[in-house]
Amino acid sequence: MKRRIGVYPGTFDPITLGHMDIIRRGAKLVDRLVIGVTTNPSKNPMFSVEERMAMVRREVEGIEGEIHVVSFDSLLMDFATREGASIIVRGLRAVADFEYEYQMAGMNQQLNNTIETVFLMADVALQPIASRLVKEIALFGGDIGKFVTPAVRAEVDARVAEIGRKGS
User: Fold this and answer.
1) Any idea what the CATH number is for the domain that residue 77 is in?
2) CA distance readout (Å), 163 to 4, 20, 54
3) Of 19, 24, 52, 135, which residue is the catalytic one?
4) Tens of pLDDT along 124-134?
């Protein structure tokens, strides 16, 4: 029997409780979940790819299922094909996410119509969380404890201390 392999791509800069929710639920849908950590040229990363991979690996340790964390710097569909995936897992928070993700899923289907995109709605309590906003809150001295695990919070706080807090 063929194993179902899914890919959950993202920058995870930093990994949030929203990401963790999608990973937990996505891992139940496939035999193997590959978390693809990538760099988005339009985003200004706070952490290097290596730091983000280490962060994600640590955070997913207790989640049931076969989960692998790897980096990639290519088209998502090329990465998914290399990993043997038949499913792309994407999280949705709001209507704006849906419009973007719907367009991306359509483009990806044109590139490889053998890989399906599966959308998971974020838990209602986690829907407002976005890594970009977590970083912004942290950079302005706000408490990000409701959005990330304590270990991630400590890493973000340390990085903010390194680069300097805004507004001070």
Assistant:
1) 3.40.50.620
2) 42, 26, 20
3) 19
4) 888 888 999 99
